[in-house]
């Protein structure tokens, strides 16, 4: 038992100097960050779409995907704010399998987290500087957020982390809006407890010092479905679910109420093509009940260049090695469809 140091101590200040934003790229990020908070606060009525592969395992494929997204963003800029999912950490229930770019900068290579840090910063930096889009990532390890905090516009907290007190406390102090997913059980009260906690100020030990956070007024809900006691999917994007979430927001009087529908995971049962139908249903329900329109204005979609998935040893450029995703043709059509409701 015990810990064995296998690298030198990481100097965070040195890490942050590599791939640091400046000039036009920094101004572009600040502009998009402002657009994002205006959407979450209701000042901007556009839809928020966080979209991309389940995991960002191939830098060049992610860049090609981001370049295509940028063209769609420009065409639909009056209707949508598109933020690429560049997820570099993957949660693993039993610890097995591909854990993301941070662990394995080469998906079929050895674990090397020091090189992984550089790979994570580089991919986020390249998306911003080469396409003008800003990125989203998942806060799987709260302490690692310090290594990439200057490059992210949006942070998600996943179903397995949303009950963790450290995630909630860190979320209350970071600069990015934070989306809180409901847990795998589907219990909405857990998600709302997490949102409430992130919207408060807290004092705790972080990075070896006592800190006090300011609170995060842009913490909000992500509905991703859940599982019953027998492992059966229980979606939570239906009309009645949206009303329940609206009622809970009204009751708790949380700041900046906002809902994102995660269209894959337990909402689709990982049947990736169902994402299209799910979005169609949600948009139609918003049309039916206009009280939902200010609240339900976000989608989280799993999409890549090629549809489906492959094994880690696969050679298909732009195809997921984790959860299956929509392909590009369906993605472009779906984004255009969402924009037609804005």
TrEMBL record:
The keyword Transferase applies. GO terms for biological process: amino acid biosynthetic process; aromatic amino acid family biosynthetic process; chorismate biosynthetic process. InterPro entries: Aldolase_TIM, DAHP1/KDSA, DAHP_synth_1. The lineage of its organism: Bacteria, Bacillati, Bacillota, Bacilli, Lactobacillales. This is Phospho-2-dehydro-3-deoxyheptonate aldolase. One of its GO terms (cellular component) is cytoplasm. SUPFAM superfamilies: Aldolase. It catalyses: D-erythrose 4-phosphate + phosphoenolpyruvate + H2O = 7-phospho-2-dehydro-3-deoxy-D-arabino-heptonate + phosphate. The keyword Amino-acid biosynthesis applies. GO terms for molecular function: 3-deoxy-7-phosphoheptulonate synthase activity. It comes from Vagococcus penaei. Stereospecific condensation of phosphoenolpyruvate (PEP) and D-erythrose-4-phosphate (E4P) giving rise to 3-deoxy-D-arabino-heptulosonate-7-phosphate (DAHP). Keywords: Amino-acid biosynthesis, Aromatic amino acid biosynthesis, Transferase. Belongs to the class-I DAHP synthase family. Pfam families: DAHP_synth_1 (PF00793). It is an enzyme of class 2 (transferase). Pathway: Metabolic intermediate biosynthesis; chorismate biosynthesis; chorismate from D-erythrose 4-phosphate and phosphoenolpyruvate: step 1/7. Its EC number is 2.5.1.54. It comes from the Bacteria.
């Amino acid at each position: 038992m015990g810990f064995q140091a296998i690298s030198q101590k990481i100097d965070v200040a040195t890490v942050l100097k590599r791939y640091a934003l400046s000039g036009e790229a920094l101004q572009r990020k600040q502009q998009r960050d402002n657009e994002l908070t205006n959407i979450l606060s209701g000042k901007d009525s556009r839809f928020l779409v966080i979209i991309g592969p389940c995991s960002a395992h191939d830098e060049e494929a992610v860049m090609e995907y981001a370049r295509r997204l940028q063209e769609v963003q420009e065409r639909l800029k009056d209707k949508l704010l598109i933020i690429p999912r560049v997820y570099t950490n993957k949660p693993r229930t039993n610890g097995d399998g591909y854990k993301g770019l941070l662990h394995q900068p080469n998906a079929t290579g050895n674990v090397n987290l020091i090189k992984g840090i550089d790979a994570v910063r580089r991919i986020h930096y390249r998306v911003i500087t080469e396409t003008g889009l800003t990125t989203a990532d998942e806060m799987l390890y709260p302490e690692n957020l310090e290594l990439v905090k200057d490059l992210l516009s949006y942070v998600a907290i996943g179903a397995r982390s949303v009950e963790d007190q450290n995630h909630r406390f860190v979320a209350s102090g970071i600069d990015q809006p934070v989306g809180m997913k409901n847990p795998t059980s589907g219990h909405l009260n857990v998600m709302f407890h997490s949102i409430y906690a992130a919207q408060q100020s807290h004092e705790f030990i972080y990075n070896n010092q006592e800190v006090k956070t300011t609170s995060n007024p842009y913490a909000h809900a992500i509905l991703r479905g859940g599982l019953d006691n027998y492992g059966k999917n229980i979606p939570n994007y239906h009309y009645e679910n949206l009303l329940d979430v609206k009622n809970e927001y009204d009751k708790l009087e949380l700041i900046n109420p906002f809902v994102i529908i995660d269209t894959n995971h337990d909402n689709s049962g990982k049947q990736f093509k169902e994402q299209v139908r799910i979005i169609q249903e949600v948009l139609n329900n918003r049309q039916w009940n206009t009280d939902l329109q200010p609240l339900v204005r976000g989608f989280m979609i799993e999409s890549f260049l090629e549809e489906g998935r492959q094994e880690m040893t696969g050679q298909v450029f732009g195809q997921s090695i984790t959860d299956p995703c929509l392909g590009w043709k369906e993605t472009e059509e779906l984004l255009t469809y969402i924009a037609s409701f804005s």
